[in-house]
Amino acid sequence: MKVCKELLYRDVMNYTPIDVIKGMDMITKKIVMADDPAPAGYKIKPKCKFCKNFLVDDKNASLGICKASKNNFMAYPDMIATTCKDYEGTDL
Ligand code: SF4
To answer: 3-39 maps to which CATH number?
Structure first.
């Protein structure tokens, strides 16, 4: 099976978490680790870290800023963005 090196299971729509460590691959119905690479072709989950408006904090990689907001509010890389009207996904 070809594996996409850039996406982890926790970053794809075809993954449903059971807890913070593991979840289910919704295609194969197998239990997988959240941080394992996802197979190629799995659909990316919209998150701030995949958005063109997200700017990583130079001093703390686990934080960032949303450039689409008027006040440049703080954003988290793994924040789910499925309901964000300003989400601009990047192509991986
Ligand atoms: S526009 Fe939405 S998805 Fe993009 S960085 Fe801001 S809050 Fe996150």
So the answer is: 2.20.70
Ligand 1 center from residue 28 Cα (angstroms): 31
Q: How far is it, in rounded angstroms, from Cα 75 to Cα 66?
A: 6
Task: Tell me the domain boundaries of the chain.
Answer: 3-39, 47-83
pLDDT in tens, 57-82: 888 889 999 999 989 899 999 999 99
- Measure the CA–CA gap between 77 and 55, rounded to whole angstroms: 9
How far is ligand 1, taken at its centre, from the CA of residue 69, in Å? 8
Least Cα distance to 92 among 43, 48, 54 occurs for 43
